[in-house]
Design brief:
Blueprint: E1 3-7, E2 10-13, E3 18-25, E4 33-39, E5 46-51, E6 58-60, E7 68-73, E8 78-83, E9 92-99, E10 113-114, E11 118-123
Parallel strand pairs: 2-11
Antiparallel strand pairs: 1-3, 3-8, 4-5, 4-9, 5-6, 7-8, 9-10, 9-11
Length: 124
Amino acid sequence: QVQLVESGGGLVQAGGSLRLSCAASGRTFSRCGLGWFRQAPGKEREFVAAINWSGDSTYYVNSVKGRFTISRDNAKNTVYLQMNSLSPEDTAVYFCAGHKWVTIRTRTTEYDYWGQGTQVTVSS
């Protein structure tokens, strides 16, 4: 079992940056694939980025490629999402999630563990 707690959200102006963190508890963290999702008001939760258990493989939704970077530190049981060049369209609640698959996963239904979410608001 893995418990996930996000932090680092907040209000930022367009063009700014934020770094989200997701701290995990549980002995199986290093064997979990991890991802970040987001959900804007009135919209479905969407995939943003994912990283495999070892950290040497990542995948991003097209809209954040070149702006967001996902990384993990297994020694600290933490996964990060560095977000640069933020725009109002990035405003959402951001969730980190974990799964037990070996390969990268992008569907919400493939994830076993979820954090409670952290709000990111980008003003224009």
